[in-house]
Amino acid sequence: MTRVKRGYTARRRRKKIRLFASTFIGAHSRLTRATTQQRMRALVSSHLDRSRKKIYFRRLWITRINAVTREERVFYSYSKLIHNLYKRQLLLNRKILAQIALSNKNCFDMILNKIINKKIK
Amino acid sequence: MAARRLAGSVTRHFRSLNQPISRSLSSQALVMRTEVIPSPQYPQQNSFSALHSTNPLRSGDLRKLSSRSTDFSLSEDEDREDDDGDEVEEGESCDEEDGSVSGRKLASRSGKSKEEMVKEAAEIGYSVVGPLTLSENPFKLYEPAFAIVQIGSHQFKVCNGDSIFTERLKYCEVNDKNGHGEGTVQTVVKVVMVTVGSRKIVFATDPCCAGIGFHFIYEEDGPVFDGMCS
């Protein structure tokens, strides 16, 4: 039989995989088998983390709102704030509240005052 | 969030003006530039009560009239504010540090009487109210206002000139101007809260507070890339 070389198919496939994992540490970016495995793990993680990212950010916003609320008022917390927000029908979401709490504290104070005063009435 | 906000760029706006409106099947992104308009209730504090003129302003004449005789040395901020108030042209280099002296000099050099100067100023379109005294402080530092806008289920905090990427709005075309507030027609954009103020001053936080206008301009259509989806 004539000698047949397998060509460039495999090389091109591995080149793409290597490019994807080019920034990985150590053997994970150098050795083909390790690179392939790490690429699979990376893709799985990125898929999962896309939904986790939303959870993480919401958690961060809640933590920030909680911190600023407790700082401003005694015996007041995030849970009470959210409850009063819904009662007052103020539609601000946690992302915006956290941003206002950080960047524009006067505004956040005014929101708190409005909610609390409304509640007392 | 910060990735969604792009500085409003003139080039994008001009590109959208030049390009024909293309409705591709996959285009879902909407770039909007926002503009918060203060109401007469909260007048802009960076200008005198001068009339707006359609005639081109002559720099020489303006300099004669704008540099008032003042006894105190103006600070940098007040220099800038005086320039704005007297409607000096952009790009003009006005040396206000010598304003008090140059004003008298220019008036004497021009050879015009006071009435003639007033008349000429009126023709151009402004009237000089009087000299600024030490006790007066008509100008405050400009502090931007922001509004919180809800489009669909997403809320954005926008300031004047901000651009945001959103889903496409149903009845909007490129270069359409939509708005909320006095004198505008409310569209699918819901203004959740309009707050006039900044870090130091908050004037109002009521939803849809009276006297605040909020406009946005639909800049361009485009496909959605990774990281751009709303």
Largest interface: A-B, 16 and 17 residues
Largest sheet, spatial ordering of strands of chain B = 1-5-2-9-6
> What level of helicity do the residues of chain B show?
10-25%
Number of helices of chain A: 5
Please indicate the percent range of residues of chain B in DSSP E strands (runs of 2 or more).
15-25%
Largest sheet of chain B: 5 strands, antiparallel
Oligomeric state of shown chains: heterodimer
Task: Write down the Rg of chain B.
Answer: 23 Å
Query: What class would the helix/strand composition of chain B place it in?
Result: alpha+beta
**Distance N terminus to C terminus of chain A?**
96 Å
Series of H and E elements of chain A:
HHHHH
Main attributes of the structure:
heterodimer, A: 121 residues, mainly alpha, 74% helix, rod-shaped, B: 230 residues, alpha+beta, five-stranded antiparallel sheet, 5 helices
Summarize the structure.
Chain A is mainly α and 121 residues long. Chain A has helices at 9-20, 32-72, 78-88, 94-103, 105-120. Chain B is 22% helix and 25% strand.
